[in-house]
Structures are given as structure tokens and as C-alpha cells.
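Training component of the fellowship. As part of building independent skills, the fellow (R.M.) carried out the full modelling exercise for a liganded target. The chosen ligand was T5A. The inputs are recorded below so that the supervisory panel can assess the work.
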Amino acid sequence: MSAVPPLGTAHRHEKGRAGRFVTFEGGEGAGKSTQMRRLQQRLAERDVEAIATREPGGSPHAEALREALLGGKAASLGPLGEAVLFSAARIDHLDRLIKPALARGAWVICDRFADSTRAYQGARGGVEPRLIALLERVALLGTTPDLTIILDLPPEIGLERARQRRAPDETADRFEREDMAFHEGLRQSFLDIAASEPGRCCVVDALAPEEEVAQAIWHIVEARFFRGNAEQKTEQASA
Ligand code: T5A
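Fellow's submitted model of the complex:
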């Protein structure tokens, strides 16, 4: 019988490969989709293939779970049950879309990922941190984001932006309907995640105009992934 690989090593994507995994996190209506589109465009200008995707969702089975989770059908399972479903959707998304894309060298830009489970079901939903960490370990098996952009703004502004964007026949989803204390706490939870992992997470002021936010994000991405290459090329050229 073959040995079971230790968790956190199987499927780990190589830091040396060209594909990068960038996630966007934050409260409701923080501007994640808007900024993801802009980043994808900037990357295309550099001839970088970047796939934009989202959670929950991003693959057919995960999209089916999205309906149950955001429609509220899964709410009766409680936050731990919801966390398990978000994780199941994540496993499918990773296996079918994220890992294959990274393996062939594409970038993946994802609207929400495991930090949302930490913040919504963990910190706000009250699921114990060790259970959230265990679920995360099992779902990710080492495929962690290279960079996480946390868009920060007062929740009442984000919720208002989300409300204005909604079509007349659309209703607020299960999480948008939570009270303001939940959303205030959520904002703090994302800031706490950023403080605990400063190497991976960057907080960006999402209250600024769209163009300014896009510029701030591009500076971060450029410094993290491109400046080193440019310096390397200059060094090679002058050697
Ligand atoms: N969830 C998810 C969990 O509980 N656990 C999990 O593990 C995961 C993965 C997903 C829900 O699921 C929960 C969290 C969420 O509640 P969703 O429908 O995908 O729900 O919604 P959100 O991720 O919250 O995203 P939204 O679609 O609500 O908002 P975005 O994408 O952050 O914002 P965006 O870009 O659509 O912008 C909203 C509006 O604001 C404008 C845009 O034009 C748009 O109209 N805007 C700006 N206006 C002024 N200034 C700016 N800088 C602006 N930027 C954007």
C-alpha cells in the first residue's frame, strides 16, 4: 500500500513556476469584481494569461453549491455545515480549474477564497479556529495564494454599492442580509487576517475612486511579481 502524503505537501504548486495565484477578499460590495477585471486587463497588456474566477463557484459542481449557499437553503446546517459546503465547493474548484491553470503557467485571479471562510464562518459564524484550519488544510492541500488583496471600506458603503448595483428583481443574498454588527465584525476579521499574514496579504483602501484603487493594486502586483524580473534582466544585461 502506498504511503499517504502528508497534508500540505501534495499538489503544492511550485513557487518557481510562472503561474501566480492572486485572491481578492473583503466585505460586501468592496469592489472585488471591478478590480479583478482591471487587473486581468493590465496583465493581458503584458501578455500574461490570467483566468478570473470566483468563490463559491468557478466550476460546475461548485456553482451548484453556490446556489444553495447564497440562496440560504444551506443556512439551516449552521456555520460549520456551511463551512464544510464552502470547502467542498473549493475542492472541486481547485481540482477542475485552479490547479490545472497554475500547472500550465497561467495566473488565476479569484474573487474570494479560504479567507472568506475564515472570516464569515469562522470569526463571524463562531466556528472554532482549529476546525476552520483543519478544513482549510484538507481543501487546499498546499495550494495557497501567492498574494491576497484585501479591499477595505466601511461596510455601510459597500452594502450600499452592492444594493445600487442589484437588478430590480434581485434580492440581497443570505450574507448581505446579516446585520451591521456582523458586517463591522467582518471588516475587522479581514484586517486581522492581513495582520497575521503580512507576507501574503495587502490591505488596499477601497473607498478611493476606482482608478486609484486599480493603481494601488497594480503597484503591489508589479512590485511583487515583475520588478524582480526586470532587475534580474538588467543585471544579466550588464554582466
Ligand atoms: N462567502 C464566500 C462565505 O461566507 N464563505 C466563503 O468561504 C466564501 C467563498 C459571495 C458570498 O459568499 C460569502 C461571502 C459573500 O457574502 P457574492 O455574490 O460573490 O457573494 O458577493 P461578494 O463576493 O460579496 O461581491 P459583490 O458582488 O457583492 O461585490 P464586489 O465584487 O466586491 O464589488 P463590485 O466590484 O461588484 O462593486 C460593487 C459596486 O460598486 C461599484 C461597482 O461599479 C459596482 O456597482 N464600485 C465602486 N464605486 C465607487 N468607488 C469604487 N472604488 C468602486 N468600485 C466598485
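The panel noted the following from the submitted structure. DSSP finds eight helices and five strands in the chain. Helices lie at 32-45, 60-71, 78-103, 114-124, 129-140, 155-165, 180-196, 210-238.
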